[in-house]
Amino acid sequence: MKAKITVLPGDGIGPEVTAAAVDVLRSVAARHGHEFEFDEQPMGGIAIDLHGEPLPPATLASCKSADAVLLGAVGGPKWSDPNAKVRPEQGLLALRAALGVYANLRPVRVHAQLAALSPLKNEKLQGVDMLFLRELTGGAYFGAKTRTADTATDECKYTVAEIERATRRAFEFARKRKKHVTHVDKANVLETSRLWRATVTRIAADYPDVTLEHQLVDSMAMLLLSKPAAYDVIVTENLFGDILTDEAAALAGSLGLLPSASLGDGKAGLYEPIHGSAPDIAGKGLANPLGTILSAALLLRYSLGLESEAGEIEAAVDAVIERGTLTRDLGGSANTKEVAAAVLVALDSSARKEAA
User: Fold this and answer.
1) Which residues are catalytic?
2) Local confidence band at 42 (pLDDT 50, 70, 90 cut-offs)
3) What is the set of domains in the chain, with CATH numbers?
4) pTM of the full structure
5) Most buried in the list 90, 115, 183, 247, measured by CB within 10 Å?
6) For the segment 143-192, what is each residue's pLDDT rounded down to a tens digit?
7) Exposed (0-12), middle (13-18) or buried (19+): which is 306, by Cβ within 10 Å?
8) Residue 157, beta-bridge partner list
């Protein structure tokens, strides 16, 4: 297979973790006879410094022509003034909108070897394996905004079509998993949530083999900690999804472990770890590359249709965790490059076993 992958290292630890993921993708391509072309482009704070805007036209053009986009992280103290007219996060929001990636997938799975790192008791973590589907291009993040000296507004707006397409993706994923969808809203207060609830309920009738439940977002925040193993696919709007998925990351033990995939109606997608740019550890070799490497596995699965190769990467990451080659955030002492190298070794070891 031939594929073009646009790489957006971004800011902070972004260049370190994306480099690790690209090395893994190159290894997979060499072993299976694929041809991956990598086009590195600036986005975020580094793009503001170079071009005066967080998503330069050349970067956007490369992303639009790519089969998939791999992103590190954007932002940092240098560009953190909330009153600045140009900020790194604007580039990320603009890219999501331009690519039409409305379904953000965030799988959360707890590795037995890392359960002690979670703030929850181990018995609550048995069987935790959930998939969040966060609607990504609507809601308060994209609504009209106003600001005066003493007032501010952020419009939260959704259309039935936006809700329908995200909801159907959630039910389709649930059909391949444990056939259970939890919809999260604030329908006792918000009109947008009432539209969500009505639409999700209607769509559920088309999936009689999937069980649907509704939860209010404040209750869900509690339930994620009190009985996380009870959930399969969780679908929700943009703002709620942003908050809940970061909370759920604590179950796994570290933000550095979790990948994400942002998908639209076509095969192209945007793939990134859920963590931020962590400027305090940038350049020190302390960043955990596993979330980005696992995002690369999702890239192979959803954009390139390479299920077997995606599984190989995920198995290699599991092997590295089991052997204890871990960065500081997971209680280990390995640096970024050492963890990435361990994943490559695990991939090669698996390939040799298959050949034998």
Assistant:
1) 141, 186, 218, 242, 246
2) very high
3) 1-103+254-356 (3.40.718.10), 119-252 (3.40.718.10)
4) 0.94
5) 183
6) 999 999 999 999 999 999 999 999 999 999 999 999 999 999 999 999 99
7) buried
8) none
